Amino acid sequence: MVFGEYYMKPFSASFAIPYPAHSEWKILSIAGVRDTKSAVDTLKKISSCGGFWQAFSPKGVASYAHLAWAAYSTVLAVQGKTTRYSSPELEFLSRVSGMRQWEKAKDRVGMVPGDWETVLVWVGPSTQLSSPAFLGFAKKWGLKPRKVVWGGGIVSPSGWGLDAESFALEESAMVELA
To answer: I want to staple 126 with a disulfide (CB 3.0 to 4.6 A). Which of 24, 29, 34, 75 is the partner?
Structure first.
């Protein structure tokens, strides 16, 4: 994947959770530009399906693999009761950003007024939300698929010898260890 301007088509990945009696989970995401100034909290009002919603800036996201890893590790932490935050939405943001401290996580992936490039994500049991329904919610929320700046806030330290995507995945994995 190339950083910079990138048209992000809807993305879906499924993953099995290794806990008894848990079904397959999936992540659905799309990026674009919001044409409304409504609060991110409205996500909870437009959908009552299981799982969780999150919206954030694409500047701290390296790739689809980065999103899928953050979703998988968040669900494992929630199921194993090893989360740092009280909600899966905040846990997911921490893992996407690769930052344990909330202020640093917001700096990496937080949305600021006037910056309407957005990644919208839903993570939940595979049976709870179809891809067409997800796209309907995204449209209702005011997201229009567009080219966005992808990974612009990720800078790998020169001594690490990693490209930006590998560095972002490494940071996300390190959240698990602390």
So the answer is: 24
Tell the residue number behind the tokens 């899966």, with chain if given.
88
Residue type (1 letter), 134:
F
Q: Is the dihedral of CA 64, 101, 106, 94 positive or negative?
A: positive
- List the domain boundaries for the chain: 4-177
50-82 pLDDT, tens digit per residue, is 788 888 888 888 777 888 888 888 888 888 888
**What's the fold here for domain 4-177?**
PF0523-like (3.30.2380)
Report yes or no: 118 and 57 within 8 Å, Cβ to Cβ.
yes
Q: What is the tens place of the pLDDT at every residue in 70-122?
A: 888 888 888 888 888 888 888 998 888 888 888 888 888 887 777 778 888 88
Contact 118, 34 (CB under 8 A): yes
* pTM of the predicted model as reported, rounded to 2 decimal places: 0.78
> Chain-centre distance of CA 84, in angstroms?
17
Task: Return d(Cα 76, Cα 42) in angstroms, integer.
Answer: 26
Distance CA 89, CA 53 (A): 7
Q: What is the DSSP letter of 173?
A: H
